[in-house]
Recover the amino acids of this structure.
């Protein structure tokens, strides 16, 4: 049996841009993508802490070290610049494998969206 489980999470990151007139997606700083084990084109869920909105879209990479978190296209209507969001990537895996799986979790600085260690 396969189940869907959390694979990656960028926890509490600040929206830096919202671009309505774009084809669609979320632009994420490449350094954050790599730290969270998220790839270009991956489907992710966005959870907005400020207003409770939840949406799904796909990822495009932003400039490394820029701190960019930009909701594009219709998703831009679900956020405001400055909102805090959680970005979650999921995967399907075998039930037994999922019991021991550890997701990649990233907790960036919400003021800069840069990784703090």
């Amino acid at each position: 049996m396969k189940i869907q489980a959390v694979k990656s999470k960028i926890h509490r990151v600040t929206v830096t841009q919202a671009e309505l007139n774009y084809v669609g997606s979320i632009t994420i700083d490449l350094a954050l993508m790599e730290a969270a084990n998220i790839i270009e084109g991956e489907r992710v869920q966005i959870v907005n802490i400020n207003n409770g909105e939840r949406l799904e879209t796909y990822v495009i990479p932003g400039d490394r070290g820029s701190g960019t978190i930009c909701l594009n296209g219709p998703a831009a209507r679900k956020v405001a610049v400055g909102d805090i969001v959680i970005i979650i990537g999921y995967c399907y895996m075998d039930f037994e494998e999922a019991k021991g799986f550890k997701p990649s979790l990233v907790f960036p600085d919400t003021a800069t969206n840069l990784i703090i260690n």
